[in-house]
Amino acid sequence: MLNLLLLTFISQGGCLPSKSLYEENTDYVQILTQETFKETLERPEEANQFWIVEFYASWCGHCVHFAPTIKEFAEEIKDWTKLVKLGVIDCGNSENGEICQENQVHGFPTMKYYLPNDRLYDQKENLIEARTIEALKQETLKLALEHNVPNANGLGRFLYLENIGAASVRNVVEQNSKDNVLTALVAAPSDLALKDGTAIDLLADLTAFSDISIRLTDVASAEKWSESKEPVVLILDHDAVKMKIELNDITSRSDVLAVLSSTLTTEKTSWKNVVKKSVIIEASDHTDDSWEKYDQSKVYLQDVESALLQLLFYDVNSFPLDGDSLNAIKKYVKIVSQLYPSTTRNIDVDLRNLSSLLEDSKISRVKKRKDWIGLLDKAGLTKLQGSQPDLSYAACKPSVENLRGYTCGLWTSFHLFLSLSPDEQAPLFVEAMSEMILNHFSCLECRKNFKNEIELFPLSDVSDHSSGVRWLWKLHNSVNARIAGEKSEDPKFPKIQFPSNEECALCKTADDFEIAETLKYLDFHYSKENLVLADGEKIIDNSRMEDDPDEIVEAIVDKPKSHKGLVWFFLVVSLIASMGLWRSYRIRTRLKRHYRKISHQL
After folding, report:
1. Close Cβ partners of 278 (under 8 Å, ≥ 6 residues apart)
2. Residue 395: CB partners within 8 Å, gap ≥ 6?
3. Where is the chain membrane-spanning (predicted)?
């Protein structure tokens, strides 16, 4: 069973939680975990703080691809910490599963915002859809504007709701001077755009200065102080201009901030280094050469098992499960339970148990994640008590952390199950596989791309075993062609059109693939004969399942699995003993008859 599998993973050095896509303890992006998420957002000093959090999975290729954008976004807004803070949490780490689920995160990457004094974790509406740096900045400031987010210090002096006229400027300056506060007046047309930002970005940047009140006005209203009709930044104390910066003379917002910093440190304001620069390490810095010991010409059942565990325990995360989402799981588990190679680990038995439980007419809805885990546990797909399974990959093991692994294991699973499918099951498998991906695969971009792919390769193309193997091969190569060269590609395992010449010399002609030879290769490569099992594991002939699988499932479910070995032992011993007693009885009977016959003759 899978508890034995998990113990084997750990004894073989099962992997620890994946390396974060972001450098731990960086001050530009705050790393959050199951334990620190609420504690951080609900601290008294954070009560007045606007937060944005990215929920990602370290195994997700599109999360890897999106990470540099988040890092640049964090760099851009590093001076906005009085206005907004940016956090990240790895939902691919099993230890963070519950908090990700509580926040209604059903795919990755997902970005959500949390308003001051309003930490509603189970809301589905507080999503940030932007995916570019400029769009993220604009949406952040738009949200802050709409919800009237104050400075984190609660002074509420960051006003950029509307331009204020000259009279209002004078009143603001005088009031600020009485409060021993300087006024930063940004005089610019509303459509002012610097080379790497906007006037509104500059206002957000200025929140990094303490004891300064920031106002936006038009050029005409500031002309009394600026003596200019050009866009300017003015630092005012009473009616005196302490500093004047012509915006047309600068090349970037960073230039403005550099001048302000050097000037204001001698005034009433000190530049606060609210964040310290910290190197954010790219995933490619973490290499691992242990993949080299695995034979890439073989298919390791360990990869299939690990991917199955990750799919069932972590990717099924959109609760409640009902309707299409529940039916997708039912269909996939049922057909995989029939195709999964029977080995001495009996994982196929556990899958049939789960299928039987899901087919129960009483189960029409699974409300919470803990209820789903309860079903997995009842079926025998148990994890270690009080912990999450550490997943380990073999031929799918990456050379760089956070690459391959799970997605490689899924593709391996799909090819294996389809190659093991007889003609009548192949169409059923591709349908179940597709519904499972579209309903439960948590990489959102992958899900969208897969939907587009099956429009090019419709499920109706699959009518039997051979067409199914060909369909999946073409689909897989189409995906490889699309994502080749992306950041999510493992440098040691480039996305090529497979099989390569090294893998199958007969599969390619000068111009294209030789279809017949390619299908022969795929059927052999993903056959039971080419499977590598764990130490001590053996294939069991499961041909009996083809006759009446439902009867066998019922019989297996009713048996106490933990005593199965002992039951068989005593049955065999009893049978041998009975045969011995019967033979002894027969011999004694014959001897008696023989002696009676002799006595009569005498």
Report:
1. 23, 25, 26, 27, 28
2. 291, 294, 295, 296, 298, 299, 300, 303, 408, 412
3. 566-585
Cβ(31)–Cβ(24) below 8 Å: yes
Residues in the chain: 602
Q: Is the pLDDT of residue 345 over 60?
A: yes
Q: Considering the domain boundaries, does residue 501 fall inside one?
A: no
pLDDT in tens, 359-369: 987 788 898 88
Residue 192 has pLDDT above 90, yes or no: no
Write out the residue range of the structural domain in which residue 531 sits. 300-495+527-546
Same structural domain, 333 and 416? yes
- The total number of structural domains in the chain stands at 4
Q: Give a yes or no: residue 273 inside a domain.
A: no
pTM of the model: 0.68
Q: What is the pLDDT of residue 119?
A: 78
| Position 454 in a domain | yes
User: Is residue 331 within 8 Å of 435, Cβ to Cβ?
Assistant: yes
Task: Look up residue 566 and give its two tokens.
Answer: 């002992």
Share of the chain above pLDDT 70, in %: 71
Instruction: Name the burial class of residue 438, with classes exposed (0-12), middle (13-18) and buried (19+) by CB atoms within 10 angstroms of its CB.
Output: middle
Residue environment code for 460-484, b if the CB has 16+ CB neighbours within 10 A, otherwise e: eebeebbbbbbbbbbbbbebbeebe
User: What pLDDT sits at residue 402?
Assistant: 77
Do 369 and 482 belong to one domain? yes
Contact 107, 443 (CB under 8 A): yes
Q: Do 176 and 68 belong together in one domain?
A: no
**Do 50 and 119 sit in the same domain of this protein?**
yes
CATH number, position 142: 3.40.30.10
pLDDT for 332 equals 98
